[in-house]
């Protein structure tokens, strides 16, 4: 049984979105955002590829993506990871 969950919030009038999630089995396939994206891993570790290199974000580490930076992501081990992410539109 998976214990994946996510909570998502979007501003109704600003280019601002936020997410808090825990994933054990969920996989993000290669994608990008039109926003600046900043995240922090709270627990566990997330593995991802961005800018042609493999990365791991462990608990306490911060991730930053520019608009249109292609990236993917998945749990680095069976325990999964918990993280928070904010997406901020370039005009802001």
Structure description:
The chain is mainly β and 92 residues long. 0% of the residues lie in helices and 61% in strands. Strands 1, 2, 3, 4, 5, 6, 7 and 8 form an 8-stranded antiparallel sheet that branches. A hairpin with a 2-residue loop joins strand 4 (36-50) and strand 5. The N and C termini lie far apart (40 Å).
Query: What class do helices, strands and sheet pairing give?
Result: mainly beta
The count of DSSP E runs of length 2 or more, i.e. the number of strands, is 8
Mean pLDDT over the residues: 96
> What gyration radius follows from the Cα positions, in whole Å?
13 Å
Number of alpha- plus pi-helical segments: 0
Poorly predicted runs are: none
Distance from N terminus to C terminus (CA atoms, Å) equals: 40 Å
Report the biggest beta sheet as strand number plus sense, adding barrel if it closes.
Answer: 8 strands, antiparallel
Oligomerization category of the chains in this entry: single chain
Question: What shape does the CA trace take?
Answer: globular
Task: Note the run of SSEs as H and E.
Answer: EEEEEEEE
Quote the beta fraction.
over 45%
Assign a percent range to the helix content. under 10%
């Amino acid at each position: 049984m998976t214990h994946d969950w996510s909570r998502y919030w979007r501003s109704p009038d600003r280019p601002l979105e936020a997410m808090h999630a825990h994933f054990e089995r969920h996989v993000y396939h290669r994608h990008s955002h039109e926003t600046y994206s900043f995240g922090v891993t709270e627990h566990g570790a997330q593995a991802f590829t961005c800018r042609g290199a493999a990365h791991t974000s462990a608990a306490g580490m911060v991730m930053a993506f520019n608009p249109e930076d292609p990236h993917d992501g998945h749990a680095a081990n069976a325990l999964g990871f918990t993280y928070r992410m904010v997406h901020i539109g370039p005009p802001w």
